[in-house]
Amino acid sequence: xxxxxxxxxxxxxxxxxxxxxxxxxxxxxxxxxxxxxxxxxxxxxxxxxxxxxxxxxxxxxxxxxxxxxxxxxxxxxxxxxxxxxxxxxxxxxxxxxxxxxxxxxxxxxxxxxxxxxxxxxxxxxxxxxxxxxxxxxxxxxxxxxxxxxxxxxxxxxxxxxxxxxxxxxxxxxxxxxxxxxxxxxxxxxxxxxxxxxxxxxxxxxxxxxxx
Length: 211
What we know:
Helix 1 (22-31) crosses helix 9 (188-201). The protein is an alpha/beta fold. The two termini are 14 Å apart. It has a 5-stranded parallel beta sheet, with helices on both faces. The protein contains 9 helices and 5 strands. The longest helix has 28 residues, at 84-111. The chain is globular, with a radius of gyration of 18 Å.
């Protein structure tokens, strides 16, 4: 367990390239004792709410809902990632306000916990203005061939990776707000070593969880 005597607490943001394996990096930090706020999971839970489904329908039409009136994330993604204006509407009117509320609740729980690190795994961390909450920001990178491989594993068409990148904040802007980086070109063990080195450099208590 994280040493409860350690008073140093850090909020760490995770940004990076599309399909660079940020979830793998987040899991490495979790295994070192960090609490992980998974924004994608928070959004998935939001879309299951009837009130959110109604708002999404009002904004984007019934075509982005399934036969039971729930948000169809695949259809919604196809729509917004082909139109930056629609993506901005979704994020600013639906996603950002609610995810920020969820994050602030998680932040309060973190402050009352014995954990030394709260990791914010949020693809739109910069766009949502959440870097202001972070003590450190880690940029995750991977070579293009590997990112394309992971995109295919998600079932994306060959052009989808570039299309999504074009709709999101410029990579260089993310690099500028980052305080450090992790290269995800190796094994899971490589990532865990890099995460451990960062935690040691930040002088926080950590441990590696058993399988």
